Amino acid sequence: MKNLNQVSLAGLRVVEAVGRLGSLKNAAEELGITSGAVSQQLHKTEHQLGRPLFTRETGGLKLTSLGAEICHELTSGLKQISEAVALADRDREESLFLSVAPLLAEKWLVWRLSSFMKANPDINLRLDANDQLVNLNHSDVDACVRVHKRAPDDVYSERLCEHFIYPVCTPEIAERLKEPRDLLNEVIIRDYNSYYRWSDWLAPFGLKESQLPRGHGFSNASLCMDAAIAGHGVFLGWDTLVANAVKQGQLKIPFGHRCSTGRSYWFICREGALRSPSVRKLRDWLKEEIAQTAVEYEKAVKV
Predict the structure, then answer these.
(1) How large is the average pLDDT for residues 196-225?
(2) What does the mean pLDDT of the chain come to?
(3) CB-CB contact of 227 with 233 (8 Å)
């Protein structure tokens, strides 16, 4: 097996996946890496072997006769390797380490975890409430959920949803808010460490933040939301922060307009992590729950 030293085993996996699935895109999806990474690995492996395995045609990639023969053997060999790895997984309890921002964990995730646990009783989820950047290539964290303007580099990223802000308050205060201008007569709760500004939400209505009355200021969004629940004023919240309080009737969304922050929620993991069925299950569950939260928002606005 000394000839294996001359070629990357990861590259052979890429060759097999592209040959079997017929495209860079499909291979990238299965391997949990980008199409660009698949293409780069393919070129590297062909160079290491000293032979072209694919022809580049208008319709895509086509296996050469040698490439077809090699892919056939690789499929058979990798299947045996997969079966060998499965032996190590047998009867082993699966554990996943997920890192999310503290507010996301406290106000949204923990209230929804029961459905994941029920659907995946064999997976133990370790939750790290942390908003610091994590080097996934040098840590035991399996995946992160973060809010960014764009996809981070050097990792696999998948956009979960756009990030929006909108006013929330108690049902009693909401009764007095018939139009955005009515906010000029209400106490405004401000998070003085927030990226998000009232001016962004008010702009479409021809209003300015300077027109709003002075109100209470707090150092973080969690305190602001608690102040809103206590009836101290109107707060500029967002889906994953206020969804549970709205669902329980503690807060109400008085207006149908919401404003994009220019940021999005991203599911982030190291390249290749999606080869793990458990990581894929976690990713899919998060996408479903985020989508359900959007549905809950629409229902709450219509009430």
Answers:
(1) 93
(2) 89
(3) yes
Looking at domain 2-89, does it have CATH number 2.30.30.100? Answer: no
Express each pLDDT in 26-59 by its tens digit: 888 888 889 899 999 999 988 888 889 998 887 7
Predicted confidence (pLDDT) per residue in 128-174, tens digit: 998 877 777 767 889 999 998 888 777 899 999 999 999 999 999 99
How would residue 90 be classed by pLDDT, with cut points 50, 70 and 90? Answer: very low
Does CATH place domain 164-262 in 3.40.50.1820? Answer: no
User: Is the whole model's pTM more than 0.85, yes or no?
Assistant: no
CA dist 203 and 260 (Å) reads 12
Tokens of 136: 């996934």
Q: Do domains 2-89 and 94-160+263-302 have the same CATH topology?
A: no
